[in-house]
């Protein structure tokens, strides 16, 4: 996380001390480094230069409008999973023609709106969804551009909650049914079959399953060609992992080289849907220690951020490094870093060696992906602020929620509607 470095004893984001941000905007808050967003995007665009490709940032990883706008300014497309996400892209100034719409449960209303907006492609996940989209497009007098999400049945070897490419999974169309489903799609009058896609899982630390999945898709592309169904693009999804601790995630350049080699001479354009690898190491969650507590054989650092702010540790047993914002020379002790929420699973890190005192700030690292977007108001905790830093400039890009906002949809209904 090069954008987050110590200078002397102080942890900085780009040219700004994190302590200064905490003093100005309060804690907990998410802090993003714009240079890290740019760097991660450039790694993809440089690696895939020379072939016809579109990076579609999967914005469920971090859908802050300022983050979307930044990627849009770099030329990015977007992978979305709800009409809400599509509307975010438009609100941030992204192009409709660069949006792909994924997800197993698209409603007819979402389809109508996406057709109206004129998105690039619907990534369809079942036969029944094809039939519904054909009907909705017909009613709207449009032809829906589609790709089928095929389940290549490869093991992503990642956490089961974030593995999506095995056949017992709810996502995609079974590999064995793909040809028949394409024939069905090609016969429906209001659909325009343009692509094939897959997404096998997240936080992959080995690219082999991703390349295997592409090979499986290309076998289908050839079979479809023989059946007279010619595709324009192949979309290989997202899933490249990042370094949270000691992982060695695949190098984007090596990944790109393997893909380019396979696509050479095929006349197919490439779509990619990276999420985590574009934003994960561009953000930290900043939190302050409220109390140090000496349990029976355990030390706790009780901080003002909790599982509602960052769900990954309690939900996936995910590991995030936790660093002091100001380094001390005091003796180190081993702490569980926990939040104020009334659940035993409310922790941000376990058994961490830290030299800290009450009131100190901690940075929970690698929190740019699936952090703010998965946050909730559990325990009536307002979501924290989000800041985007570029050089020495700090921009508030989401204000901390207020109590009044949390109760707004209830207060007028308190004494009934009649
Ligand atoms: C979540 C998701 C992605 C992004 O995955 P990452 O692991 O964050 O890169 C891409 N495509 C689809 C369909 C997804 O659901």
TrEMBL record:
Binding site for substrate: 276, 312, 316, 343, 370
EC number: 4.1.1.20
Classification via SUPFAM superfamilies: Alanine racemase C-terminal domain-like, PLP-binding barrel
NCBIfam families assigned: lysA
A Pfam family the protein falls into: Orn_DAP_Arg_deC
Record has Kinase as a keyword: no
Main EC class the enzyme belongs to: lyase
Residues bound to pyridoxal 5'-phosphate: 239, 273-276, 370
The protein's required cofactors: pyridoxal 5'-phosphate
Domain Orn/DAP/Arg decarboxylase 2 C-terminal: residue ranges: 33-368
HAMAP family per record: LysA (MF_02120)
N6-(pyridoxal phosphate)lysine carried by residues: 60
Pathway(s): Amino-acid biosynthesis; L-lysine biosynthesis via DAP pathway; L-lysine from DL-2,6-diaminopimelate: step 1/1
Family: Belongs to the Orn/Lys/Arg decarboxylase class-II family. LysA subfamily.
GO MF terms, alphabetically ordered: diaminopimelate decarboxylase activity; pyridoxal phosphate binding
InterPro entries the record matches: Ala_racemase/Decarboxylase_C (IPR009006), DAP_deCOOHase_LysA (IPR002986), De-COase2_C (IPR022643), De-COase2_CS (IPR022657), De-COase2_N (IPR022644), Orn/DAP/Arg_de-COase (IPR000183), PLP-binding_barrel (IPR029066)
The organism of origin for this protein: Microvirgula aerodenitrificans
UniProt cross-references to PANTHER family, sorted A to Z: DIAMINOPIMELATE DECARBOXYLASE, GROUP IV DECARBOXYLASE
Domain of life of the organism encoding this protein: Bacteria
Official protein name in the record: Diaminopimelate decarboxylase
Subunit: Homodimer.
Keywords: Amino-acid biosynthesis, Decarboxylase, Lyase, Lysine biosynthesis, Pyridoxal phosphate
Record function comment: Specifically catalyzes the decarboxylation of meso-diaminopimelate (meso-DAP) to L-lysine.
Domain Orn/DAP/Arg decarboxylase 2 N-terminal stretches: 37-279
